Amino acid sequence: MTGDRTCTKSGPSVDSRQLQPVMFKKSLLTAVAIIGSFLTATGQDDAAKPPNPLETPSPKGARVYIQGIKDGRTFKGPVTIRFGLKGMGVCPAGTYLPDTGHHHLLINMDASELDKKLPIPSIDGKCLHYGKGQTQVTLDLPKGKHTLQLAFANFAHILHKPAVISKKVTITVE
Asked: 80-89: per-residue pLDDT in tens?
């Protein structure tokens, strides 16, 4: 076979000069693939990381608020707090549905104290969970000034991204 410039395929013989453009294209594609994978590897820190299944997005414009209580209001006796919500739905903790969650009431505590990547902790008298989907509560707060703030969390008690948190309201109980 010395000097023979043909390759055997199943079927008739093919002149090797006919294969050169195909081999050149394959070599070029291989070089591009190698260079592309090198560039991708060097930019690994910028690559998108897989999403955390416990992090859930909040829709644009979603908000939570305390209904009917103006900042600075004074109460005698038990205080009924109604939880308002726009742009999302309420469902019990542990139930995953997109754009839903449940309320947490922060008393004399600021939402900035919460770790946005961890479940909201239950802190007796300070951070109350309403994981059954409740939308109001009546509390016997001790006499004095108190701040109230709502945090709306997902099925796993983790704040949505971006966090859906109400403005803080200050009340006085006599």
From this structure: 999 999 999 9
Domain limits at 35? 12-46
Q: Is residue 21 part of a domain?
A: yes
Closest CA to 126 of 137, 144, 141, 136: 141
CATH for 85: 2.60.40.10
Tokens of 61: 């414009």
Which of 106, 62, 107 shows the shortest CA–CA distance to 88? Answer: 62
pTM of the complete model: 0.70
In this structure, are 42 and 70 located in the same domain? no
Range 124-160 burial, b when 16+ CB lie within 10 A, else e:
eeebbbbbeeeeeeebebeeeebebbbbbbbbbbbbb
